[in-house]
Amino acid sequence: MEIKTGYLYHIKDEFFDNINDNGIMINHENGHSRPTYFTIKDKDILWFIPISSKVDKYKKIISKKLQKNGVCKTIMINRIGNEEVAILIQNAFPTILKYIDHPHIINGKPLKVIKTLKNEILYNFKYTMMLKNKGVNLFFTDIDRIKEKMLEELKRK
Predict the structure, then answer these.
(1) What is the mean pLDDT of residues 87-96?
(2) What is the mean pLDDT of residues 116-127?
(3) Dihedral of CA 135/140/143/145: which sign?
(4) Is the distance from CB of 150 to CB of 45 less than 8 angstroms?
(5) Helix, strand, coil content of the chain in percent (nearest 5)
(6) CA torsion angle for 15, 16, 17, 23 (degrees, to 10)?
(7) How far is CA 118 from each of CA 40, 104, 127, 148, rounded to the nearest angstrom?
(8) In 3D, which of 120, 139, 121, 119 has the Cα closest to residue 129?
(9) Which residue of 8, 32, 112, 141 could cross-link 93, Cys pair, CB 3.0 to 4.6 Å?
(10) 78, exposed or middle or buried, with CB in 10 Å at 0-12, 13-18, 19+?
């Protein structure tokens, strides 16, 4: 399966079993395969950014962040497909190809995020990574530990 930046995918349960990180959102909710993830391909590492339908919940969080900091680049509200969703950069994590279950399909085709939104997500993700590299970690997951584990798995192939 070819993985492309800007498309949405679902991840296998096996990943969550292997990682065991409290910061990662659960994979299933009421029997549905959730959440869907916006994917960024970075060589052998794939970055997954959860997409949530709980827009009202995240609008309140964004409002608090804006009042406190004047900016919020870790949560975005936008439309993907025909739905308003929350894009949770703060919950991003790295993975590898073997953990991809399937693309998110709408009307028989993999769902691709429009270019302007894709670019905005990429900008906010890179900005949040830059802050982390400068010592300001806004990610809820231990992305360094997970990335190291993923790179170790790739070496064992």
Answers:
(1) 95
(2) 97
(3) positive
(4) yes
(5) 40, 30, 30
(6) 140
(7) 10, 16, 14, 26
(8) 139
(9) 141
(10) middle
25-44 residues labelled b (16+ CB within 10 A) or e (exposed): bebeeeeeebbbbbbbeeee
Banded model confidence at residue 30, pLDDT cuts 50, 70, 90: very low
Contacts 24+ apart (CB under 8 A), 55-62: 55/84, 55/85, 55/86, 57/86, 58/86, 58/88, 59/86
What CA–CA distance (Å, rounded) separates 29 from 55? 16
Q: Is the pLDDT of residue 95 over 70?
A: yes
Q: How many helices (H) and strands (E) does the chain have?
A: 4, 11
Amino acid at 39: T
Q: What pLDDT shows up at residue 118? A: 96
| Whether pLDDT at 31 is above 60 | no
Cα-to-chain-centroid distance, residue 108:
23
At 26, is the pLDDT very low, low, confident or very high (cuts 50, 70, 90)?
A: low
Contact 103, 110 (CB under 8 A): yes
Buried b (16+ CB within 10 A) or exposed e, 88-122: bbbbbbbbbeebbeebbeeeeeebbbeeebbebbb
